[in-house]
Structure formats: C-alpha cells, structure tokens
Design a protein that fits this description.
Largest sheet: 7 strands, mixed
Shape: globular
Number of helices: 15
CATH class of the largest domain: Alpha Beta
Strand order of the largest sheet: 14-15-13-12-17-20-21
Helix content: 25-40%
CATH topology of the largest domain: Ribosomal Protein S5, domain 2
Strand content: 15-25%
Number of domains: 3
Structural class: alpha/beta
Length: 455
C-alpha cells in the first residue's frame, strides 16, 4: 500500500508521495522496469559473488591469466593470501549503486594458464606466490612419435567424429594422413604435435569435404582437400604476400643479382619469402664503418645482424672501416623476429662486398654463429613449402634440420632441391654465381674458418 503523508504542518501546499515499499521502488519496479532493485532492496539481494567466492573450498581455473589487468591480478593475490575477500561492485539488483560486503571466504586452489611468450605480463608478486606455494609446469607442444602415441591421435580423431555427430568415420589411410599432419605440425623429427584443437579443425574440415562429396567414409583425398580449405588466416595472408611479391618482382625466381637474396621466414604457422638486399657505400666516418639495417626488426633480429657484421669483419679480410653496410628487409610489414635470417643477411652482405652475384633461384634459412657455423632454426617445413609455392628451385637449410623433413609431402619434395649446410662456406658455394671471384672467395673463407678452428 502506498502511504500518503500530509505536509500541512510544514506549511507547504499539496502532498508528498512516498512510493518506497519493502521490496523496492514501486514506480521503478512496476512501471519503468521489472525487478530492477533499488535502495529499498535488501543488501544481500544486491550482492553478486564473484568466481573467487564461488570457488571457495574448490578449484579456480583462469585461462590467459596475463589478460587480467594489473589491479585485478593484485586483488587475486590478496584473495589467495587472505583466503577471504569482500564482494564489491554492482549487480542487476543494485540499480547502479556500488555495494561492498564484509570479507567473504574464498579459500581455493588456483590453476592459471597462459602462453610462455606472455609470462612477462603476469604480475611479479602473483608469479612469486605461484612459485613459492605451488608449481610452474611448461606444457610441451609435441610428444614422441611412438606407436602408442599414434594410437592416441587416432583415438582423438574418433572422439572428434563422435562429438561432431555429422561427419563420417575416417578410413585407415585417412587416419595415417592425419598422423602425418601431426608430424608435420610438430616441426621436429620423431615428434607428434599435441595442438589438438588445431588438428580437430582439420578433422572436421575433412569430414565436411567427405559429406559434400557424398562419401560415407573420410578418405585421404578428403583430408588433403580439407587441409587446403582449412588454412589459417596467417596461411592465407602469407599466400597473398608470396603472390603479391612475385607479381611485382619484390623477389625474383631466376637470374643473378649482386647483394640480393631470397631469405625465408615464418608468419604464424606459414612460411613466407623474405627478400633481403645489401648495399656497400663509403663510410661516413673515418674511424669505423657502420652496419645499418632497415625494416620492421625485432630485438633478436637486430642482434643477428650485428653478429653477421662480426663474422664478415673477422673472415673477409677487408678493412670494413672504409665501408657502411646497408641491409634492407623488403616490405616486412609483418615484422621480422628471431635470427633465422642471419645466414641470408651474411650472404647478401658478402655478395655486395665482393661483387659476386647470387643465384635468384635459391632461397635459404639458418642461424649463423660468430664462428661461421650454420645452426638449426624452426619452421623449416613451412619455409620449404613456401619455396615450392613461390616457384623457386633450390633451398639451403641447416644440416641439423634435414632429418625434420621426413613428413614433407612427396609431391612438393620432388619440386625443389634441398641442400643441407653446416657452414657459411657451404651456403656460398651453392648460392653464388660460378666464376673466378666466387672460387677465390670460397678459398679465402675456407682457410680463415679452418685456421680459426686450430688450437
């Protein structure tokens, strides 16, 4: 019942209507909205417990924990330490009013997950708490390629088929193809990928292809077509980059050029051609020459360029103080990180310094040590596939990565010559244009590296 109170004693004309009831504001609840709450709503109805309170005496799982703001991470730390935390905030029953309760029990076990690359974004105090009172576990992205683990991949495929409910079962050869894809995605010899969510996408795409073709069983051809259709955004963009750079001759697939090399990189989970050019000019300083790299380079890529400069100074025999070396990573809008282009950079710079042309049918990848050794890198399988797609004939890779190519598609492998290299001398031997300049350079570098290895 609405109470009407006369205010004649205050000598005011008219009446004041107090429409507040025991369950909320009658006007707001009944006319403007339904059950919106209000100042008359009992406080306990305006409290909405959070995940930390609902997890009391249980387990709280937080994925991508680094995505929490620093303030939220601090509050999470407080809850862990105190084992109680006040319910604070606004609920649908508070009509915008901020409420806060007395501390509420929140004694829980925290399991936090995230990517290793983002660990720096976890609050130091929170991570210290995890290390001090719990465990840090790094989850491997690959498992051993054993008959038992292959059977697990097959079981996973069967589970995905059952869970989907619409795609047909996989034939034996199709399962073998899925296992090969798991090997390829692992990117390491004798390993299987455990990125099962990505693999599940291929399973469903293959099943959709089989359904579209009216097949009651998924066959090898369906898996291969599903792999083509289920390309990631990175793979699609990488393909467009390759086509665009080829159309506009950003990189070349034939002939010889001084100071220009077809490097290789990985974008997401797809390989791309990374054209690199080098030019030598008279030094702007009388005391020392500089190495100037342009392009969207990360910290590790910049350090790799500096290491290349050290190798060239040590083994070339040239007075590099008289030169400035300019290195350009062409159209690297997607950015360059890591040191897998250092062999390519060294080849381009040596070519520019010595005036020896590079075969443009060749692409290369590898990390270069300051002793001239070619060290293994990641993503070799994807890089070779990009070489084939670009129409290049030869690819030079680190010798240590050669055994990782066991699952490379036979049709693609037949289209490209793969050369394993252990030293920069072997790279130059296969990349430079034949002639007297090349022979003299190879001899000079071979002697320098051999002398360096003597006690």
């Amino acid at each position: 019942m609405v109470k009407v109170e006369s205010v004649k004693r205050r000598k005011l004309k008219g009446f004041v209507y107090n429409a507040t009831t025991d369950t909320g504001n009658l006007f707001v609840n009944g006319i403007l909205a339904h059950n919106s709450g209000g100042l008359g709503t009992p406080p306990h109805l305006r409290l909405a417990p959070g995940a930390i309170h609902r997890a009391n005496k249980g387990v709280l799982f937080i994925d991508e924990v680094y995505a929490l703001s620093p303030k939220s991470q601090q509050e999470l730390l407080t809850a862990l330490q105190e084992k109680k935390y006040a319910i604070t905030g606004q609920s649908e029953l508070s009509s915008g009013a901020l409420v806060q309760s007395a501390p509420v029990p929140c004694d829980f076990v925290l399991i936090a997950a995230g990517n290793y690359a983002d660990i720096r974004r976890v609050h130091p105090a929170l991570r210290s708490r995890i290390r001090g009172y719990g465990y840090e576990v790094y989850m491997e992205e690959a498992m051993d390629d054993t008959p038992e683990n292959r059977l697990k991949i097959a079981r996973f495929v069967a589970q995905e088929v059952k869970k989907d409910g619409k795609i047909p079962p996989f034939g034996r050869e199709a399962l073998v193809e899925i296992v090969k894809e798991s090997q390829r995605r692992a990117g390491r010899k004798s390993k299987l990928s455990v990125k099962l969510r990505d693999l599940g996408g291929l399973v469903r795409a293959s099943g959709d292809v089989a359904n579209a073709m009216g097949s009651k069983v998924v066959l090898v051809a369906h898996v291969r077509e599903g792999r083509r259709l289920a390309r990631t955004l990175e793979q699609q963009i990488a393909r467009q980059l390759v086509d665009s750079r080829k159309d506009y001759h950003i990189f070349e697939t034939q002939g010889y050029r001084v100071g220009k090399v077809n490097g290789l990189a990985v974008m997401g989970d797809s390989g791309v051609i990374l054209p690199i050019v080098a030019e030598v000019t008279p030094s702007a300083s009388r005391d020392e020459g500089k190495t100037i790299a342009t392009g969207k380079l990360g910290d590790i890529a910049k350090e790799a360029v500096e290491n290349v400069s050290a190798v060239i100074k040590k083994y070339s025999g040239l007075d590099t103080r008289a030169f400035d070396v300019h290195i350009q990573f062409l159209q690297t809008y997607e950015g360059v990180e890591g040191d897998s282009a250092s062999v390519s950079v060294a080849t381009a710079v040596i070519s520019a310094l010595e005036g020896v042309a590079i075969n443009q049918e060749v692409a290369m990848t590898g990390s270069l040590s300051v002793r001239g050794e070619v060290l293994p890198v990641g993503g070799v399988m994807q890089k070779i596939e990009s070489v084939v797609d670009a129409g290049l004939k030869t690819v030079i890779i680190p010798a240590a990565n050669y055994d990782d190519l066991g699952t490379l598609d036979e049709a693609k492998r037949a289209k490209v010559k793969i050369i394993p290299a252990k030293t920069i001398v072997e790279v130059l031997r296969h990349a430079l244009k034949p002639g007297k300049k090349k022979d003299a350079l190879i001899l000079k570098l071979s002697r320098a590296i051999a002398d360096n290895g003597k006690p």
